[in-house]
Prior knowledge:
The complex is a heterodimer. Chain A has helices at about 5-15, 20-30, 35-50, 60-80, 85-95, 100-110, 115-150, 150-170, 175, 180-215, 220-245, 250-255, 260-265, 265-275; strands at about 290, 295-300, 305-310, 315-320, 325-330, 340-345, 350-355, 360-365. Chain A is of the alpha+beta class. Chain A folds into 3 domains: about 5-50, no CATH class; about 120-265, no CATH class; about 285-365. In chain A, helix 2 (about 20-30) packs across helix 3 (about 35-50) and helix 8 crosses helix 14. Chain A is elongated and about 115 Å long. Chain A starts with a helix and ends with a strand. Chain B is an all-alpha fold. Chain B has 2 domains: about 5-85, Rna Polymerase Sigma Factor, Chain: A; about 95-175, Orthogonal Bundle (Arc Repressor Mutant, subunit A). Chain B has 8 helices and no strands. In chain B, about 40% of the residues are buried.
Amino acid sequence: MKCQEVMELMQRHLDDDLDSDEIEVLYSHTRQCPDCAAMFERLKLLSQELTSLPKVVPSYSLVDAILPELERIDKLAGRTAEDSDPTAAAKAAGHGEAVQPDSRMSRRTGRKRWPSWGALGGVIAAGIVTGLFIATYPPGMSKDKANSDMYTADGAVSMSMESDVAQKMKIAPGEAAGGDAPVAGDASVGTESYAGGGDSGKQAEPEGSQSSGYVPLSSESTSGGGAPRQEEAEERIGSEAWRVEDQFGEENFVEPTDGPAKAATEQPPGFLESEPDANGFTVNNNALGTPSPDGLYLASADQYSIRVVALDTGETVLETSRKNGKHTNIVWAQDSSSLTYEVQLEQGAIERYVIDAAKWTEQKAGHP
Amino acid sequence: MVEPGLIKAAQSGDRDALITLLREIETHVYRTAYYILNNEQDAMDAAQEALIRIYTKIGSYEEKAQFKTWIQRIVTNICIDKFRRSKPTVSIDEHELVFREKRNVEDEVMSAYALQDIRKAIDQLPEHHRTVVVLRYLQDFSYNEIADSLDLPLNTVKSYLFRARQQLQALLHDYQKGGVRG
Protein backbone atom coordinates (compact mmCIF):
# COMPACT_ATOMS: atom_id res chain seq x y z
CA MET A 1 0.00 0.00 0.00
CA LYS A 2 1.26 3.42 -0.92
CA CYS A 3 1.90 6.07 1.72
CA GLN A 4 -0.47 8.44 -0.08
CA GLU A 5 -3.31 5.94 0.32
CA VAL A 6 -2.42 5.44 3.93
CA MET A 7 -2.65 9.16 4.41
CA GLU A 8 -6.34 9.00 3.59
CA LEU A 9 -6.81 6.17 6.06
CA MET A 10 -5.07 8.22 8.72
CA GLN A 11 -7.25 11.20 7.98
CA ARG A 12 -10.43 9.16 8.06
CA HIS A 13 -9.30 7.45 11.23
CA LEU A 14 -9.13 10.85 12.89
CA ASP A 15 -12.82 11.20 12.08
CA ASP A 16 -13.68 7.66 13.25
CA ASP A 17 -14.58 6.76 9.70
CA LEU A 18 -12.66 3.46 9.38
CA ASP A 19 -14.05 -0.01 9.76
CA SER A 20 -11.99 -2.65 11.57
CA ASP A 21 -10.38 -3.98 8.38
CA GLU A 22 -9.23 -0.55 7.35
CA ILE A 23 -7.86 0.08 10.81
CA GLU A 24 -5.85 -3.13 10.52
CA VAL A 25 -4.44 -2.02 7.15
CA LEU A 26 -3.49 1.33 8.58
CA TYR A 27 -1.70 -0.05 11.60
CA SER A 28 0.11 -2.75 9.72
CA HIS A 29 1.49 -0.06 7.41
CA THR A 30 2.52 2.35 10.13
CA ARG A 31 4.33 -0.45 11.95
CA GLN A 32 6.60 -0.81 8.94
CA CYS A 33 6.77 2.80 7.72
CA PRO A 34 8.29 5.19 10.24
CA ASP A 35 7.53 8.23 8.10
CA CYS A 36 3.84 7.42 8.03
CA ALA A 37 3.91 6.52 11.70
CA ALA A 38 5.39 9.90 12.53
CA MET A 39 2.94 11.68 10.26
CA PHE A 40 0.10 9.78 11.87
CA GLU A 41 1.28 10.90 15.30
CA ARG A 42 1.44 14.48 14.19
CA LEU A 43 -2.02 14.36 12.69
CA LYS A 44 -3.44 12.75 15.81
CA LEU A 45 -1.82 15.43 17.91
CA LEU A 46 -3.23 18.11 15.67
CA SER A 47 -6.67 16.58 15.83
CA GLN A 48 -6.53 16.47 19.62
CA GLU A 49 -5.49 20.09 19.74
CA LEU A 50 -8.29 21.08 17.42
CA THR A 51 -10.77 19.14 19.52
CA SER A 52 -9.63 20.94 22.63
CA LEU A 53 -9.78 24.43 21.18
CA PRO A 54 -11.42 26.74 23.73
CA LYS A 55 -15.20 26.61 23.58
CA VAL A 56 -15.55 30.35 23.41
CA VAL A 57 -18.78 32.05 24.44
CA PRO A 58 -19.96 35.54 23.60
CA SER A 59 -18.98 38.17 26.13
CA TYR A 60 -22.59 39.39 26.39
CA SER A 61 -25.94 38.00 25.37
CA LEU A 62 -26.28 38.37 21.65
CA VAL A 63 -30.02 37.82 21.81
CA ASP A 64 -30.43 40.64 24.31
CA ALA A 65 -28.38 42.83 22.03
CA ILE A 66 -30.60 42.19 19.05
CA LEU A 67 -33.97 42.36 20.86
CA PRO A 68 -34.62 45.99 19.89
CA GLU A 69 -33.91 45.14 16.28
CA LEU A 70 -36.19 42.12 16.46
CA GLU A 71 -38.98 44.34 17.81
CA ARG A 72 -38.44 46.75 14.96
CA ILE A 73 -38.66 43.84 12.53
CA ASP A 74 -41.88 42.69 14.18
CA LYS A 75 -43.43 46.13 13.85
CA LEU A 76 -42.44 46.29 10.22
CA ALA A 77 -43.79 42.80 9.66
CA GLY A 78 -47.01 43.62 11.51
CA ARG A 79 -47.67 46.51 9.17
CA THR A 80 -47.02 44.66 5.98
CA ALA A 81 -48.39 41.29 6.96
CA GLU A 82 -51.92 42.33 7.84
CA ASP A 83 -53.22 39.83 5.35
CA SER A 84 -51.76 37.23 7.74
CA ASP A 85 -49.43 35.90 5.12
CA PRO A 86 -46.59 34.55 7.23
CA THR A 87 -44.04 34.89 4.46
CA ALA A 88 -44.84 38.54 3.99
CA ALA A 89 -43.50 39.24 7.44
CA ALA A 90 -40.29 37.52 6.68
CA LYS A 91 -40.08 39.28 3.35
CA ALA A 92 -40.68 42.67 4.83
CA ALA A 93 -38.23 42.07 7.59
CA GLY A 94 -35.46 40.36 5.78
CA HIS A 95 -36.09 40.18 2.10
CA GLY A 96 -32.97 39.52 0.05
CA GLU A 97 -30.34 37.10 1.23
CA ALA A 98 -27.24 39.16 1.00
CA VAL A 99 -27.61 42.87 0.83
CA GLN A 100 -30.63 43.93 2.79
CA PRO A 101 -29.97 42.04 5.99
CA ASP A 102 -26.47 43.40 5.88
CA SER A 103 -27.55 46.98 5.71
CA ARG A 104 -30.23 46.40 8.27
CA MET A 105 -27.66 44.83 10.48
CA SER A 106 -25.35 47.72 10.05
CA ARG A 107 -28.06 50.17 11.00
CA ARG A 108 -28.79 48.16 14.06
CA THR A 109 -25.24 47.88 15.25
CA GLY A 110 -24.89 51.53 14.41
CA ARG A 111 -27.55 52.43 16.90
CA LYS A 112 -26.55 49.94 19.52
CA ARG A 113 -22.84 50.14 19.77
CA TRP A 114 -21.39 52.64 17.41
CA PRO A 115 -23.65 55.65 17.50
CA SER A 116 -21.42 57.45 15.04
CA TRP A 117 -21.92 54.92 12.29
CA GLY A 118 -25.15 56.52 11.12
CA ALA A 119 -23.52 59.90 10.87
CA LEU A 120 -20.45 58.36 9.34
CA GLY A 121 -22.61 56.69 6.72
CA GLY A 122 -23.94 60.11 5.84
CA VAL A 123 -20.47 61.53 5.70
CA ILE A 124 -19.36 58.69 3.48
CA ALA A 125 -22.32 59.23 1.20
CA ALA A 126 -21.51 62.91 1.05
CA GLY A 127 -17.90 62.01 0.38
CA ILE A 128 -18.90 59.85 -2.52
CA VAL A 129 -21.03 62.63 -3.93
CA THR A 130 -18.24 65.10 -3.40
CA GLY A 131 -15.79 62.71 -4.97
CA LEU A 132 -17.96 62.44 -8.03
CA PHE A 133 -18.33 66.18 -8.08
CA ILE A 134 -14.60 66.67 -7.84
CA ALA A 135 -13.98 64.01 -10.39
CA THR A 136 -16.48 65.34 -12.88
CA TYR A 137 -16.51 69.04 -12.39
CA PRO A 138 -12.95 70.28 -12.76
CA PRO A 139 -12.74 69.41 -16.44
CA GLY A 140 -15.75 71.60 -16.99
CA MET A 141 -14.38 74.33 -14.79
CA SER A 142 -10.98 74.33 -16.36
CA LYS A 143 -12.55 74.37 -19.77
CA ASP A 144 -14.68 77.28 -18.73
CA LYS A 145 -11.56 79.06 -17.71
CA ALA A 146 -9.75 78.18 -20.87
CA ASN A 147 -12.80 79.21 -22.72
CA SER A 148 -12.92 82.65 -21.22
CA ASP A 149 -9.23 83.12 -21.84
CA MET A 150 -9.49 82.28 -25.48
CA TYR A 151 -13.15 82.14 -26.05
CA THR A 152 -12.78 82.93 -29.68
CA ALA A 153 -10.90 79.73 -30.23
CA ASP A 154 -13.51 77.60 -28.62
CA GLY A 155 -16.16 79.65 -30.26
CA ALA A 156 -14.54 79.00 -33.58
CA VAL A 157 -14.56 75.31 -33.05
CA SER A 158 -18.20 75.18 -32.32
CA MET A 159 -19.16 77.90 -34.76
CA SER A 160 -17.32 76.39 -37.66
CA MET A 161 -19.14 73.23 -36.91
CA GLU A 162 -22.49 74.64 -36.27
CA SER A 163 -24.08 74.45 -39.67
CA ASP A 164 -22.80 70.94 -39.97
CA VAL A 165 -24.03 69.93 -36.58
CA ALA A 166 -27.36 71.59 -37.07
CA GLN A 167 -27.92 69.70 -40.28
CA LYS A 168 -26.96 66.41 -38.77
CA MET A 169 -28.93 66.91 -35.64
CA LYS A 170 -32.11 68.22 -37.21
CA ILE A 171 -32.94 69.26 -33.73
CA ALA A 172 -32.83 72.51 -31.89
CA PRO A 173 -31.26 74.31 -34.82
CA GLY A 174 -31.75 77.63 -33.13
CA GLU A 175 -29.60 76.55 -30.30
CA ALA A 176 -26.98 75.04 -32.51
CA ALA A 177 -26.66 77.76 -35.11
CA GLY A 178 -27.93 80.78 -33.30
CA GLY A 179 -26.27 83.08 -30.86
CA ASP A 180 -22.86 84.58 -31.16
CA ALA A 181 -19.66 82.66 -31.13
CA PRO A 182 -18.55 83.03 -27.53
CA VAL A 183 -21.94 82.03 -26.23
CA ALA A 184 -22.04 78.99 -28.42
CA GLY A 185 -18.60 78.07 -27.22
CA ASP A 186 -19.67 78.36 -23.65
CA ALA A 187 -22.71 76.28 -24.27
CA SER A 188 -20.76 73.52 -25.85
CA VAL A 189 -18.32 73.34 -23.02
CA GLY A 190 -21.01 73.54 -20.42
CA THR A 191 -23.16 70.86 -21.91
CA GLU A 192 -20.21 68.65 -22.54
CA SER A 193 -19.23 68.61 -18.93
CA TYR A 194 -22.84 68.24 -17.89
CA ALA A 195 -23.33 65.27 -20.13
CA GLY A 196 -20.20 63.63 -18.80
CA GLY A 197 -21.08 64.32 -15.21
CA GLY A 198 -24.62 63.16 -15.58
CA ASP A 199 -23.71 59.92 -17.23
CA SER A 200 -20.94 59.08 -14.86
CA GLY A 201 -23.26 59.84 -12.00
CA LYS A 202 -25.81 57.44 -13.35
CA GLN A 203 -23.26 54.73 -13.82
CA ALA A 204 -21.70 55.22 -10.46
CA GLU A 205 -24.97 55.23 -8.61
CA PRO A 206 -25.57 51.47 -8.30
CA GLU A 207 -22.02 50.93 -7.25
CA GLY A 208 -22.24 53.71 -4.74
CA SER A 209 -25.44 52.49 -3.21
CA GLN A 210 -24.15 48.96 -3.07
CA SER A 211 -21.02 49.96 -1.29
CA SER A 212 -22.87 52.19 1.09
CA GLY A 213 -24.82 49.11 2.03
CA TYR A 214 -21.58 47.46 2.96
CA VAL A 215 -19.78 50.47 4.20
CA PRO A 216 -20.82 50.63 7.84
CA LEU A 217 -20.03 46.98 8.36
CA SER A 218 -16.35 47.17 7.72
CA SER A 219 -14.06 50.09 8.06
CA GLU A 220 -11.69 48.66 5.46
CA SER A 221 -14.22 49.07 2.74
CA THR A 222 -14.98 52.63 3.74
CA SER A 223 -11.45 53.81 3.81
CA GLY A 224 -10.44 51.89 0.75
CA GLY A 225 -13.42 52.81 -1.34
CA GLY A 226 -13.14 56.51 -1.95
CA ALA A 227 -10.08 57.05 -4.03
CA PRO A 228 -10.48 54.23 -6.54
CA ARG A 229 -14.06 55.25 -7.06
CA GLN A 230 -12.95 58.72 -7.99
CA GLU A 231 -10.45 57.38 -10.42
CA GLU A 232 -13.09 55.18 -11.92
CA ALA A 233 -15.33 58.15 -12.27
CA GLU A 234 -12.63 60.05 -14.06
CA GLU A 235 -11.94 57.20 -16.37
CA ARG A 236 -15.60 56.95 -17.04
CA ILE A 237 -15.74 60.57 -17.99
CA GLY A 238 -12.92 60.01 -20.40
CA SER A 239 -14.64 57.08 -22.00
CA GLU A 240 -17.89 58.97 -21.95
CA ALA A 241 -16.58 61.46 -24.46
CA TRP A 242 -15.82 58.62 -26.85
CA ARG A 243 -19.14 57.03 -26.26
CA VAL A 244 -20.80 60.27 -27.23
CA GLU A 245 -18.86 60.27 -30.43
CA ASP A 246 -19.56 56.63 -31.21
CA GLN A 247 -23.25 56.94 -30.74
CA PHE A 248 -23.52 60.34 -32.24
CA GLY A 249 -26.87 60.07 -33.92
CA GLU A 250 -28.73 58.49 -31.08
CA GLU A 251 -27.11 60.50 -28.39
CA ASN A 252 -28.07 63.69 -30.08
CA PHE A 253 -31.68 62.84 -30.38
CA VAL A 254 -31.84 61.77 -26.81
CA GLU A 255 -29.64 64.47 -25.49
CA PRO A 256 -29.20 67.23 -28.02
CA THR A 257 -26.77 69.05 -25.78
CA ASP A 258 -24.12 66.49 -26.64
CA GLY A 259 -24.02 67.93 -30.14
CA PRO A 260 -21.47 70.67 -29.56
CA ALA A 261 -19.23 68.26 -27.73
CA LYS A 262 -19.33 66.09 -30.77
CA ALA A 263 -18.67 69.11 -32.89
CA ALA A 264 -15.42 69.72 -31.10
CA THR A 265 -14.19 66.21 -31.74
CA GLU A 266 -15.07 66.43 -35.41
CA GLN A 267 -13.60 69.77 -36.06
CA PRO A 268 -11.22 69.14 -38.98
CA PRO A 269 -13.73 67.76 -41.48
CA GLY A 270 -16.27 70.24 -40.20
CA PHE A 271 -14.18 73.23 -40.94
CA LEU A 272 -13.29 72.12 -44.43
CA GLU A 273 -16.85 71.35 -45.39
CA SER A 274 -18.31 74.21 -43.43
CA GLU A 275 -21.09 75.94 -45.27
CA PRO A 276 -22.20 79.48 -44.64
CA ASP A 277 -24.28 79.46 -41.57
CA ALA A 278 -27.22 81.69 -40.83
CA ASN A 279 -25.06 84.59 -39.78
CA GLY A 280 -22.58 84.23 -42.59
CA PHE A 281 -20.02 84.57 -39.94
CA THR A 282 -17.23 82.44 -38.72
CA VAL A 283 -14.67 83.16 -36.14
CA ASN A 284 -11.29 81.70 -35.71
CA ASN A 285 -7.83 82.34 -34.55
CA ASN A 286 -6.60 78.81 -34.39
CA ALA A 287 -3.84 77.40 -36.52
CA LEU A 288 -6.15 75.86 -39.07
CA GLY A 289 -7.78 79.10 -40.03
CA THR A 290 -11.18 80.21 -41.19
CA PRO A 291 -12.41 79.21 -44.63
CA SER A 292 -14.30 81.68 -46.78
CA PRO A 293 -17.97 80.90 -47.30
CA ASP A 294 -17.37 80.14 -50.99
CA GLY A 295 -14.71 77.67 -49.99
CA LEU A 296 -11.97 79.31 -52.07
CA TYR A 297 -9.82 80.82 -49.38
CA LEU A 298 -8.59 80.11 -45.93
CA ALA A 299 -7.78 82.96 -43.62
CA SER A 300 -5.59 82.33 -40.63
CA ALA A 301 -3.96 84.43 -38.00
CA ASP A 302 -0.43 83.97 -36.92
CA GLN A 303 0.89 85.98 -34.06
CA TYR A 304 0.93 89.41 -35.65
CA SER A 305 -0.65 89.19 -39.09
CA ILE A 306 -3.38 87.62 -41.16
CA ARG A 307 -2.59 85.25 -43.99
CA VAL A 308 -5.09 84.29 -46.66
CA VAL A 309 -4.38 81.19 -48.70
CA ALA A 310 -6.17 80.01 -51.82
CA LEU A 311 -7.39 76.56 -51.01
CA ASP A 312 -7.16 75.20 -54.57
CA THR A 313 -3.56 76.23 -55.24
CA GLY A 314 -2.23 76.63 -51.73
CA GLU A 315 -0.85 80.03 -52.70
CA THR A 316 -0.76 82.82 -50.21
CA VAL A 317 -2.82 85.59 -51.69
CA LEU A 318 -2.44 88.02 -48.85
CA GLU A 319 -0.33 88.54 -45.82
CA THR A 320 -1.24 91.62 -43.84
CA SER A 321 1.25 93.98 -42.41
CA ARG A 322 2.43 93.27 -38.95
CA LYS A 323 0.25 94.66 -36.22
CA ASN A 324 1.17 94.67 -32.60
CA GLY A 325 -1.61 92.66 -30.99
CA LYS A 326 -3.42 89.36 -30.98
CA HIS A 327 -5.36 88.79 -34.19
CA THR A 328 -8.79 87.41 -33.52
CA ASN A 329 -12.37 87.25 -34.74
CA ILE A 330 -11.64 86.59 -38.38
CA VAL A 331 -15.01 86.86 -40.06
CA TRP A 332 -15.84 86.43 -43.71
CA ALA A 333 -18.67 88.32 -45.29
CA GLN A 334 -21.47 86.06 -46.35
CA ASP A 335 -20.64 86.54 -50.04
CA SER A 336 -16.91 86.07 -49.39
CA SER A 337 -16.26 89.53 -50.76
CA SER A 338 -14.47 90.68 -47.69
CA LEU A 339 -13.29 89.62 -44.31
CA THR A 340 -12.78 91.44 -41.09
CA TYR A 341 -10.54 90.76 -38.18
CA GLU A 342 -9.67 92.35 -34.91
CA VAL A 343 -6.39 93.11 -33.29
CA GLN A 344 -6.42 93.12 -29.54
CA LEU A 345 -4.06 95.81 -28.37
CA GLU A 346 -2.85 96.40 -24.88
CA GLN A 347 -5.26 97.62 -22.23
CA GLY A 348 -8.16 95.92 -23.95
CA ALA A 349 -8.30 98.22 -26.99
CA ILE A 350 -9.37 96.56 -30.20
CA GLU A 351 -8.63 97.63 -33.75
CA ARG A 352 -10.81 96.31 -36.49
CA TYR A 353 -9.72 95.82 -40.08
CA VAL A 354 -11.56 94.96 -43.26
CA ILE A 355 -9.90 93.12 -46.13
CA ASP A 356 -11.34 93.51 -49.58
CA ALA A 357 -11.25 90.05 -51.10
CA ALA A 358 -11.40 91.40 -54.65
CA LYS A 359 -8.22 93.48 -54.43
CA TRP A 360 -6.68 91.91 -51.34
CA THR A 361 -6.27 95.24 -49.69
CA GLU A 362 -7.08 96.03 -46.13
CA GLN A 363 -8.20 99.09 -44.31
CA LYS A 364 -8.97 99.96 -40.77
CA ALA A 365 -12.64 99.81 -39.95
CA GLY A 366 -14.66 101.64 -37.39
CA HIS A 367 -16.17 99.74 -34.55
CA PRO A 368 -19.60 98.42 -35.23
CA MET B 1 -29.48 20.25 20.65
CA VAL B 2 -32.71 22.16 20.12
CA GLU B 3 -35.97 20.50 20.98
CA PRO B 4 -38.14 19.89 17.91
CA GLY B 5 -41.17 21.15 19.82
CA LEU B 6 -39.47 24.48 20.40
CA ILE B 7 -38.67 24.81 16.71
CA LYS B 8 -42.27 24.04 15.79
CA ALA B 9 -43.59 26.57 18.27
CA ALA B 10 -41.18 29.18 16.97
CA GLN B 11 -42.21 28.47 13.41
CA SER B 12 -45.89 28.74 14.27
CA GLY B 13 -45.39 32.31 15.42
CA ASP B 14 -44.68 31.86 19.14
CA ARG B 15 -42.31 34.74 19.62
CA ASP B 16 -41.18 33.67 23.09
CA ALA B 17 -40.33 30.24 21.75
CA LEU B 18 -38.33 31.83 18.97
CA ILE B 19 -36.41 34.00 21.42
CA THR B 20 -35.73 30.99 23.64
CA LEU B 21 -34.52 29.10 20.62
CA LEU B 22 -32.16 31.91 19.68
CA ARG B 23 -30.76 31.93 23.20
CA GLU B 24 -30.08 28.22 22.96
CA ILE B 25 -28.16 28.51 19.72
CA GLU B 26 -26.38 31.81 20.15
CA THR B 27 -23.23 30.27 21.58
CA HIS B 28 -22.97 27.76 18.76
CA VAL B 29 -23.49 30.49 16.22
CA TYR B 30 -20.92 32.71 17.88
CA ARG B 31 -18.32 29.97 18.20
CA THR B 32 -18.39 29.21 14.50
CA ALA B 33 -18.12 32.87 13.65
CA TYR B 34 -15.31 33.33 16.12
CA TYR B 35 -13.12 30.62 14.63
CA ILE B 36 -13.87 31.46 11.02
CA LEU B 37 -13.30 35.18 11.43
CA ASN B 38 -10.61 34.86 14.11
CA ASN B 39 -11.74 38.09 15.69
CA GLU B 40 -14.11 38.64 18.58
CA GLN B 41 -15.75 41.81 17.35
CA ASP B 42 -16.33 40.49 13.84
CA ALA B 43 -17.69 37.31 15.38
CA MET B 44 -20.16 39.26 17.52
CA ASP B 45 -21.37 41.16 14.48
CA ALA B 46 -21.65 38.07 12.32
CA ALA B 47 -23.39 36.08 15.03
CA GLN B 48 -25.95 38.82 15.63
CA GLU B 49 -26.56 39.09 11.94
CA ALA B 50 -27.04 35.33 11.77
CA LEU B 51 -29.48 35.35 14.70
CA ILE B 52 -31.53 38.09 13.09
CA ARG B 53 -31.61 36.16 9.85
CA ILE B 54 -32.69 33.03 11.69
CA TYR B 55 -35.39 35.07 13.43
CA THR B 56 -36.77 36.36 10.16
CA LYS B 57 -36.40 33.14 8.22
CA ILE B 58 -37.47 30.56 10.75
CA GLY B 59 -40.56 29.99 8.64
CA SER B 60 -38.44 28.78 5.76
CA TYR B 61 -36.76 26.03 7.78
CA GLU B 62 -37.92 22.58 6.68
CA GLU B 63 -37.68 19.56 8.88
CA LYS B 64 -35.97 17.46 6.25
CA ALA B 65 -32.75 19.26 7.17
CA GLN B 66 -31.24 19.12 10.60
CA PHE B 67 -31.84 22.35 12.46
CA LYS B 68 -28.21 22.57 13.53
CA THR B 69 -26.94 22.31 9.98
CA TRP B 70 -29.52 24.88 8.88
CA ILE B 71 -28.29 27.45 11.39
CA GLN B 72 -24.66 26.68 10.65
CA ARG B 73 -25.33 27.24 6.97
CA ILE B 74 -26.68 30.68 7.78
CA VAL B 75 -23.80 31.68 10.00
CA THR B 76 -21.08 30.28 7.74
CA ASN B 77 -22.55 32.08 4.73
CA ILE B 78 -22.47 35.36 6.63
CA CYS B 79 -18.92 34.70 7.80
CA ILE B 80 -17.67 33.80 4.35
CA ASP B 81 -19.25 36.98 2.97
CA LYS B 82 -17.52 39.01 5.65
CA PHE B 83 -14.31 37.13 5.17
CA ARG B 84 -14.29 37.80 1.45
CA ARG B 85 -14.92 41.45 1.99
CA SER B 86 -12.08 41.89 4.42
CA LYS B 87 -9.38 39.57 3.17
CA PRO B 88 -7.90 38.57 -0.13
CA THR B 89 -8.37 34.88 -0.85
CA VAL B 90 -5.36 32.72 -0.30
CA SER B 91 -5.18 29.71 -2.52
CA ILE B 92 -3.82 26.51 -1.18
CA ASP B 93 -0.99 25.00 -3.16
CA GLU B 94 -1.43 21.31 -3.19
CA HIS B 95 2.20 20.47 -3.79
CA GLU B 96 3.11 22.12 -0.55
CA LEU B 97 0.96 19.73 1.38
CA VAL B 98 2.19 16.39 0.26
CA PHE B 99 4.57 14.93 2.78
CA ARG B 100 6.76 17.91 3.14
CA GLU B 101 10.05 17.52 4.93
CA LYS B 102 9.67 13.83 5.35
CA ARG B 103 13.20 13.39 6.56
CA ASN B 104 12.51 15.63 9.54
CA VAL B 105 9.42 13.81 10.68
CA GLU B 106 11.38 11.44 12.88
CA ASP B 107 13.06 14.29 14.71
CA GLU B 108 9.69 15.67 15.64
CA VAL B 109 9.26 16.35 19.30
CA MET B 110 5.66 15.67 20.14
CA SER B 111 5.04 18.58 22.39
CA ALA B 112 1.71 20.31 22.49
CA TYR B 113 1.24 23.05 19.95
CA ALA B 114 0.70 26.45 21.41
CA LEU B 115 -2.88 27.58 21.19
CA GLN B 116 -1.97 30.79 19.47
CA ASP B 117 -0.03 28.86 16.87
CA ILE B 118 -3.13 26.82 16.11
CA ARG B 119 -5.24 29.94 15.82
CA LYS B 120 -2.62 31.47 13.57
CA ALA B 121 -2.45 28.36 11.44
CA ILE B 122 -6.22 28.17 11.11
CA ASP B 123 -6.16 31.76 10.00
CA GLN B 124 -3.88 30.76 7.14
CA LEU B 125 -6.40 28.37 5.67
CA PRO B 126 -8.59 29.30 2.72
CA GLU B 127 -12.14 30.11 3.77
CA HIS B 128 -13.80 26.81 2.88
CA HIS B 129 -11.04 24.71 4.39
CA ARG B 130 -11.23 26.73 7.55
CA THR B 131 -15.00 26.48 7.68
CA VAL B 132 -14.88 22.71 7.32
CA VAL B 133 -12.35 22.48 10.15
CA VAL B 134 -14.49 24.69 12.37
CA LEU B 135 -17.61 22.64 11.78
CA ARG B 136 -15.72 19.42 12.32
CA TYR B 137 -14.00 20.42 15.54
CA LEU B 138 -16.06 23.20 17.08
CA GLN B 139 -19.49 21.86 16.18
CA ASP B 140 -18.43 18.20 16.17
CA PHE B 141 -20.15 17.69 12.83
CA SER B 142 -19.87 14.56 10.71
CA TYR B 143 -18.84 14.69 7.06
CA ASN B 144 -22.48 14.57 6.07
CA GLU B 145 -23.50 17.32 8.42
CA ILE B 146 -20.70 19.51 7.12
CA ALA B 147 -21.76 18.73 3.56
CA ASP B 148 -25.34 19.70 4.39
CA SER B 149 -24.29 22.89 6.12
CA LEU B 150 -22.04 24.07 3.32
CA ASP B 151 -24.04 22.60 0.48
CA LEU B 152 -20.94 20.81 -0.74
CA PRO B 153 -20.51 17.25 -2.03
CA LEU B 154 -19.30 14.76 0.57
CA ASN B 155 -16.06 14.12 -1.26
CA THR B 156 -15.32 17.82 -1.41
CA VAL B 157 -15.83 18.08 2.33
CA LYS B 158 -13.40 15.23 2.92
CA SER B 159 -10.89 16.69 0.52
CA TYR B 160 -11.08 20.11 2.20
CA LEU B 161 -10.80 18.63 5.67
CA PHE B 162 -7.87 16.37 4.81
CA ARG B 163 -5.99 19.09 3.02
CA ALA B 164 -6.70 21.52 5.81
CA ARG B 165 -5.28 19.13 8.39
CA GLN B 166 -2.23 18.48 6.27
CA GLN B 167 -1.63 22.15 5.87
CA LEU B 168 -2.22 22.80 9.56
CA GLN B 169 0.24 20.18 10.66
CA ALA B 170 2.80 21.50 8.19
CA LEU B 171 2.32 25.05 9.43
CA LEU B 172 2.47 24.01 13.07
CA HIS B 173 5.54 21.94 12.36
CA ASP B 174 7.18 25.04 10.92
CA TYR B 175 6.09 27.24 13.80
CA GLN B 176 7.39 24.72 16.26
CA LYS B 177 10.77 24.66 14.64
CA GLY B 178 10.72 28.43 14.55
CA GLY B 179 11.83 28.13 10.97
CA VAL B 180 10.74 29.73 7.78
CA ARG B 181 8.70 27.62 5.41
CA GLY B 182 10.41 25.94 2.51
